[in-house]
Write a structure and sequence with these properties.
By secondary structure, the chain is of the alpha/beta class. Helices cover about 40% and strands about 10% of the residues. The longest helix is centred in the first third of the chain and has 19 residues.
Length: about 475
């Protein structure tokens, strides 16, 4: 589709949609919104005069946003956002915010579609289904694109990888950026370790005067603690927000021990502890019926000023096998992909460590699908957003791979970037176990084989409910 044809097509479609009688985004019931379909809306500022945008709500209540650029290249990028957000329902602002944040895709000529998901809270398969839903909305309203790519960042990388495995035939390639690619049953073990190590040193989460609960819950179900309250306890114990010279000797030693044992960077310590508190609570109490999916039996902690005392005193627990099964079925990856997958990762990602890439490579190689994977790394230190030039270069490289069948290399991708990229084509991460203490039996990948997934799929109620 050339620029003139695409522009005429878009203008005619916009006129048709403008004639529809639609309710406001938040007022219409999900079924009515799904019937009405996408409604024209002002694009984010970054795309003003460059694209036409629509929003809507699918039959499951998930809000979504769609953009088609003035000079559409006939290809579509379907975006899976990270998180998970912990709100009760679908956030109507989230997909538009994501569209603004990922406007580089539209700038490169790609149509873009993204879902806010039908609810907040954990649920990888649910998010994957909602991502597939917005692809179907796009195809049903705007016509089938020539080529469809799925993109996900952070937890959205896990979601997009699940999309590639679960909906074969609908996607031509996958771009996974700073993704949580070790899956749920192993990908949060370092946060499990943080939760118990923090409590050993700090003893204030919970305090001795507060009701006790097992730390694998993250937080008791009825707690009124807020993020600000958690931040205050972290500051009390470690002086994290203070300059080093303003910390007490005890605070500095606590901080040094926590960081030394867990390997978590100081700058992301608070965000990891929030996840190990509030997201764990959501996962355990709201999604798994109070069952424990985590274990730290057999883990030998090291890196503190007194490892013997730490290992003798840290809280230990074993997982409920049914909870592990349900979390694994929901979020672990089998590696059974049949489309090109390109990953982009900051070497110093402080949130989803670079070793997630090793877990994903081992997963695809364990499934005999290693030929479908190319991994690229950059000398960056952010998690939530990488260089715009790298996203543009990555999506172009993935499209060339899909269209030509010629598999790129990390070097060829790096050389294709004219400027503004920070690739390190020679970098190779260590194994996942070199960064995160493996639990017994946790060294083999994939964490869930395709055969096990098929067997578990026959268990009534398996996984995490949408």
């Amino acid at each position: 589709m050339n620029g003139t044809t695409a522009r005429a097509w878009r203008q005619g479609l916009a006129a048709c949609l403008a004639a529809l009688t639609v309710g406001t985004l938040t007022a219409a019931a999900p079924a009515d919104a799904a019937t009405a379909g996408p409604a024209p809306v002002a694009c984010p500022a970054a795309l003003a005069e460059k694209a036409t945008c629509w929003t809507g709500q699918d039959a499951n209540g998930a809000h979504y946003a769609v953009a088609v650029p003035e000079d559409w290249n006939s290809s579509l990028v379907v975006h899976a956002h990270g998180g998970p957000d912990l709100g009760a329902g679908s956030d109507p602002a989230r997909s538009l915010d994501d569209l603004g944040r990922w406007s580089v895709m539209v700038d490169q000529g790609y149509a873009w579609a993204g879902s806010s998901y039908r609810r907040g809270g954990y649920g990888t398969r649910m998010a994957a289904a909602d991502t597939e839903s917005v692809r179907r909305v796009f195809a049903g309203r705007f016509g089938a694109p020539e080529l469809t790519l799925v993109h996900g960042q952070s937890w959205g990388g896990n979601v997009a990888a699940k999309v590639a495995e679960t909906y074969p035939g609908h996607y031509d390639g996958a771009l996974l950026t700073n993704g949580v690619l070790a899956g749920g049953s192993r990908g949060y073990d370092y946060r499990v370790d943080l939760r118990v190590v923090y409590q050993y040193y700090c003893g204030n989460h919970p305090r001795p005067t507060e009701p006790r609960y097992p730390l694998w819950q993250g937080l008791r179900a009825d707690s009124t603690m807020t993020s600000a309250g958690l931040r205050a306890r972290l500051q009390e114990c470690t002086g994290l927000a203070s300059a080093p010279r303003e910390r007490t000797a005890v605070q500095q030693r606590n901080l040094d021990d926590i960081l030394g044992v867990t390997g978590i960077p100081e700058r992301s310590l608070e965000s990891h502890l929030r996840f190990a508190t509030f997201t764990f609570r959501d996962l355990v109490h709201r999604r798994l019926g109070g069952r424990n999916p985590f274990s730290n039996r057999g883990v030998r902690y090291s890196g503190s000023h007194d490892d013997r005392a730490l290992n003798a005193g840290v809280e230990r627990f074993s997982a409920d096998p049914t909870a592990v099964r349900d979390l694994s079925y929901d979020s672990d990856l089998t590696g059974d992909v049949h489309i090109p997958v390109l990953t982009l990762r900051a070497i110093d990602d402080p949130t989803a460590f670079v070793e997630h890439e090793s877990a994903y490579r081992a997963t695809l190689e364990g499934a005999g699908r290693g030929r479908y994977l190319v991994q690229t790394f950059t000398r960056e230190s952010e998690h939530s957003e990488l260089s715009g030039a790298e996203y543009a270069t990555s999506v172009a490289a993935l499209e060339r791979w899909v269209r030509t069948g010629v598999r790129p290399t990390a070097g060829s991708v790096a050389r294709a970037c004219p400027s503004g990229c920070f690739y390190d084509p020679d970098f190779r991460p260590g194994s996942y176990a070199s960064r995160v203490a493996a639990r017994p039996g946790g060294l083999r990948w994939p964490a869930m084989t395709a055969a096990r997934e098929r067997a578990w799929s026959r268990v009534p109620g398996v996984g995490i409910a949408p």
